[in-house]
Fold each of these.
Amino acid sequence: MAANPQMEELQAATGKVLASYAGYMNTWSIELGLRLGLFDAIRENPGISAGKLAETLNYDPLYTKVWCNATYAGGFIEKSDGGFALAPHMDTVLLDPDFPMAAGGTAFTMTALREHMVSLRERFRTGERTWWDRTSIEFRESVGMASYPFYVRLVRHAFPKMPGVQAALEAGGRVLELACGTCRGLTLIAKAYPNAKFTVVDGDSESLEMARAQLDIAGVEGVQMTHSPLEDIEFEDEFDVILINVSLHEARDMKKVVENAHRALKPGGWFVVSDFPFPEKLEALRTIPAQVMCGIQYFEALIDDQLLPASHYAKELGAAGFRDIETLDVSPIHAIVYGRK
Ligand SMILES: C[S@@+](CC[C@H](N)C(=O)[O-])C[C@H]1O[C@@H](n2cnc3c(N)ncnc32)[C@H](O)[C@@H]1O
């Protein structure tokens, strides 16, 4: 029988929609597997059966079997010695937070987005927005986990390519992190550059409480904290390096925030903007990283902003008087724009 081109197209279109649903369910399976320690237990006991996995973790055997089948179907675990083992590289990609492309924490953000996606049913009509202080603790915590790999990439890949910044950090310079959130990332920087002295600012007081707890757990001492909108900070000629990670796009008044950063730096100090590089053109959105960023844009819209192309930050830095402005493309979801006072 001759192939029916229209039927083939319909099958392909149906497959595209079903693949999206499969991805959504895979996200939940990853989230459950990380949260409940199922992946960890499989890593520690390769070849473990679903029944034994349930027994080891004291979990319900039926739920555990359903999870094993789902994560096998998704390709995150595979058959081994009559049971299951992690699929190749999943220990790195899902379970190693220090891997620069670590993707495990993102599952928490994707699932924590549900509260926001549900709220959009009504907000499409009302246009109502929200802000960080009205999001769940789970959401704020998950954002900190998902953004941690940005800091890993900063420390491992980006700072070494920015000799002036690296030298200031190594020499024990004064560092200001704007919009520090839960400070999960700052703990990494503080440990990598033990001589540097840190001040952090965030506009959400509960995030700062979570940050203090995070720093205490990590044993990082001496971090000064300021609760303030970035638009209102009044530091002057104080810092050698100012960093802002995945947050400058959220500024209510970006020009003011960049000017404030300029004023807060000592002459010759560095401003490092690390953020998602949202594609400039609609046609560039048809990639997996862009689809993930488009998902994040729902939350950004809820807090009344949007992720922006890296070129936008370069222009803002130029307008505020920064010089030697450079852009580093670190990964498809990570660009750094930096300049000097
Ligand atoms: C996406 S989170 C990033 C937090 C942290 N940098 C990280 O990568 O985990 C954004 C943070 O910016 C803070 N923020 C956003 N806009 C702000 C503003 N205009 N003034 C002060 N803080 C702000 C929020 O409270 C939130 O903690």
Amino acid sequence: MQNTSEIEELVKLISKLPGLGPKSAKRIVLKLINNRDELVKPLAKTLAEVYKNISRCKICGVLKSSAVDCSYDNCRVIKKKYNQICVVENIADQWSIENSNIFQGYFHILGGTISSAGNKKEDLLINSLVVRVKKDKIDEVILATSATVEGQTTAFYIQDSLKDTNVKITKLAQGLPVGGEIENLDDGTLLSAFKNRSKLNSNSD
Ligand SMILES: [Zn+2]
């Protein structure tokens, strides 16, 4: 092969994606170069647009388009629709819960857990959660962090951060498998974890 450093670079990049190794990355690259106009062109365009326009909201952590303040009025609440905020670790967790149709309310995506990958409390969107709870007069914060040590440590820290508000704080039921990451749970497990969530503080309902 001559002069294929672009191809090698592409294979290297694609194999960094979740679930893909060098072998499947090569298959994908072949498919792409055999479909230049149908795949490569629109993909390059869409990737450039995503890079330019999509970012995480600095307040609530959801993905948003730079053209608008925050997607579906999640944190810039103009007309209050819900009185609950569900707190999750990452966007994949938000998507799992949304897809299961269990929860109707606002989301707050922390961006990790306190001790994972060197994350510090300050790196997570915890201060902005406290601000949202007060500003939007939220009645209940549902902590949907994973059943891992990091997830539970984070939940405890959030509970502590919210102690000066009057909000009711609940946590997903212990039925979650230990080590269970929200994004990997099936809808049934998720549903029962939501239904049987337990109250963590003694604030009024
Ligand atoms: Zn937001």
